[in-house]
Amino acid sequence: MEVEQSNQAKMFNEPSMEPSISFVKALQELKNIRPQLYSAAEYCEKSYLHSEQKQVVLDNLKDYAVRALVNAVDHLGTVAYKLTDLLEQQTLEISTTGLHISCLHQVNRYMCAYKKILLF
């Protein structure tokens, strides 16, 4: 019986952890962009310095920079979306908990009133 309740608790909590895990993963992916951009910048700098076709390298660098910026903004949007989803879920959980507390408080008042009636 106790194991069954433990399994039910795990099953109940797993979906509620999903937005949190998803947010952390999206944030980590955003953090991973930084070293990639530094590496690409170093490569572009070396290519520019050692190339005889500097204009071609510069044009390629501009294209890459635009794509990298779009990618970073896209990741920021993903992180923002995941954070909003996480906050909405937590707000819902807080609201639900508040309703449960209110219900328990109401039951408690009812039981106290019922107890007083029985005592008289």
TrEMBL record:
InterPro entries: ABI. Belongs to the ABI family. Involved in regulation of actin and microtubule organization. Part of a WAVE complex that activates the Arp2/3 complex. This is ABI family protein. It comes from Helianthus annuus (Common sunflower). The lineage of its organism: Eukaryota, Viridiplantae, Streptophyta, Embryophyta, Tracheophyta.
